[in-house]
Amino acid sequence: MVVKIGVIGLQGDVEEHVRALKSCLAEMGEHGEVVIIKHHGIVSSCDAIVIPGGESTTIGRLIEREGVADELREAAEAGKPIMGTCAGMILLAKDGDESVKRTGQLLLGLMDVRVKRNAFGRQRESFELPLKLSIFDEPFPGVFIRAPCITHAAAGVDVLARLGDDATGERIVAARQGNIMALAFHPELTTDRRIHHYFIAQINFRS
Ligand code: GLN
Question: Which of 5, 11, 42, 145 has a 20 to 30 A CA-CA distance from 72?
Fold first, then answer.
């Protein structure tokens, strides 16, 4: 059986994730397919799922309307790797500050974290910097676009990266809780494939 990875494709930077995942599978020599999920009924056949960046309120509304939100909760419960980037990070959270709550944002509640939208202010809407992640030796090119951050993570959440020297735990930009991983930035917009490799490696490959 081949591995099947789904990218939630109702809105956002979907194709970039599809391309990154396909090239990773090829590099790893794994047989696999990458599918775009637009409706109910596909998530359960996937071994891992990516929730891309985009507009978190829009993606939230659409996955609920299409019946994909509950399927994602079931996939998480089943232990399947799920990665959310940028807007996807917001969707994974259990809690949000005012910037999240006032829009009636759907939160899947898969990670014990509180998130904040557009956490880096207007002057720094988009930026790129070498980001130190605890899972890699070399910095990762972090592309931030109107990025959210995690302002609070419960015990049991592994913080993979923080921005700045804020020792209070604010501005966490990468975290993992078991099979769920949230990134404030866009690994699909670089040519560095280490994060997608790391994500795919969490799937238990079947022969
Ligand atoms: N600021 C956007 C939101 O809150 C996320 C931006 C992005 O995914 N690039 O939905």
Answer: 145
